[in-house]
Amino acid sequence: MQLAVAVVVAVASLSLGAAPDPRLRAGVFLHDAGKLGAAIALYRELLAEHPHEPAAVFELALTLVADRQYDEGITFIEAELKNGAQSPRLYAVLARAHAAKSQPELSLAALERGLKVAPDNAELLYGLGAHHGAREDWPRAIDALTACARADPESPSGWAGLARAYEATNEPARAVAAQTHAVLARSPPPRVKASAQRVRELASTPSQLARMLKESGDPFFGDAPEHLVALAHDVFRAGGDAAAELWCAEHPREVDAWRAWVKQRVPAR
Predict the structure, then answer these.
(1) Mean pLDDT across the chain, nearest whole number?
(2) In order of start, what are the domains of the chain with their CATH numbers?
(3) What phi, psi does 16 have (nearest 5°)?
(4) pTM for this prediction
């Protein structure tokens, strides 16, 4: 089993000086539309006027690598790092470029360099977990992905990666718990459904899910034993289970109590 190396594409600050520069936003739109060459030209024009501007540096690096200009991207990123840039995202893009060139040692070195700058950066920790997972070094992958999930518990990537690692080591209860966290994290509906469907595959019924969450040893779920049945049905409902949908409709108090507990425990949810 392999974990895909993911680079989280965050929209960079659009501020250049006192006011936003529309060229940066235009470049992002061009990139998203697949017009990478045009985006690269726009970022180069912008950087000619504002050398080393962090947002433009990141977007150019990201777009060069997306355009498979790996050597150009690596050279550009290393020059910016040498000039004093310390953005963790640059190290993540650098790692991605080396991975694309089948240079795993250099990819790992880029991740480790970034983690020296930002030890708790979730994106870099995910990349580290993915690197070790691709080599089936599951203990190290689990350590890195656990750190990723703790660094950003509301992002589904770390949890989903951790779940896959636990599946690889035949720890189904822990895999289910991690994947359930991915369901509860901030995610677009399709991703929530995908994680919930995986939970349904690992735990065939809501009752089994409740038991597995209790057995997982995860303190998040251990703190709410009275809510596990409602939680389990709610997760199955999110995965498209019709019987769980009916159960939730027939037990509104239990579902409301579970959801209120989650909101109190993790306000962002």
Answers:
(1) 91
(2) 1-14+21-118 (1.25.40.10), 153-269 (no CATH)
(3) -120, 100
(4) 0.85
